[in-house]
Design goal:
Layout lengths: L10 H11 L7 E4 L5 H15 L4 E4 L2 H10 L14 E4 L3 E2 L5 E2 L6 H9 L4 E6 L11 E5 L4 H10 L3 E4 L1 E3 L3 E2 L7 E6 L6 H9 L4 E4 L1 E2 L4 E5 L5 E5 L1
Bound molecules: ribulose-5-phosphate.
């Protein structure tokens, strides 16, 4: 997992991340997302496991969240052992008023989508800056390296401007936890996220894109320390 949004410490992220941990009850199997906001949720759940006897199993979405969950003391399981999760909690790069989200700033959106769609309830934790009337951020698209040129061509035909995500000029492209590349695609304002989502999924070689349509609830951390909860 390589995070292009190396975000500074933000108390808003902390309050959103910790507030969402209150949704977790003993006995649950919980999807653990990736990024700096949900890291607060993972650390808080770990504290409750260690200090309060919270009895949960986590399913991770990246090597980053796996390392943090292990370090925090959360016992882990897999989708092979638990196909249906009670809850998944994760961050987002942008959320619109209809609760469509763009994810993948940390290049983990493929596993994040699989885990969140496996959950009965999907909660996003985010600071206020992520909320937007419409989606207009670049959409991360994980692609098979073998298919990069074809995917670039097809995305251009859809009106997108794809850029290969680079780790650095010296290190070359970002490689996902699944061994693939990521294209960051500018579409301007995305008028119809559901339609774009179908068009991107139909391109051969696209492993997964970062438009999420399955968010049930958003915990929004505000600068005044409060957390607003919006539900679908
Ligand atoms: C990783 C993600 C992250 O959840 C998203 O980038 C938000 O990260 P952060 O909470 O650090 O702002 O989608 O692929």
């Amino acid at each position: 997992m390589t995070d292009r949004n190396v975000s500074a410490e933000k108390p808003e992220k902390r309050s959103a991340g910790i507030a969402a941990a209150r949704l977790v009850r003993s006995g649950m199997v919980v999807g653990l997302g990736t990024g700096s906001t949900v890291a607060y949720t993972i650390k808080e759940l770990g504290r409750q496991v260690r200090e309060e006897g919270l009895n949960i199993l986590g399913v991770v979405t990246s090597y980053q969240s796996e390392m943090l969950a292990i370090e925090s003391g959360i016992p882990l399981t897999t989708l092979a052992q638990h196909q249906e999760l009670d809850l998944a909690i994760d961050g987002a790069d942008q959320v619109d008023v209809k609760m469509y989200a763009i994810k993948g700033g940390g290049a983990a959106h493929t596993r994040e989508k699989i885990v969140s769609v496996s959950a009965k309830h999907f909660v996003v934790v985010a600071d206020d800056s992520k909320m937007s009337k419409e989606l207009d951020r670049e959409v991360p698209v994980e692609v098979l390296p073998f298919a990069k040129e074809l995917v670039v061509k097809k995305i251009r035909e859809l009106g997108g401007k794809p850029e290969l995500r680079m780790a650095s000029r010296k290190d070359g492209p970002v490689i996902t936890d699944n061994g693939n590349f990521v294209l960051d695609v500018a579409f301007g304002v995305i008028e119809d996220p559901a339609a774009l989502s179908l068009q991107l999924s139909a391109i051969p070689g696209v492993v997964e894109h970062g438009i999420f349509s399955n968010v049930d609830e958003v915990y929004i951390g505000k600068t005044d320390g409060s957390v607003e909860i919006i539900k679908k």
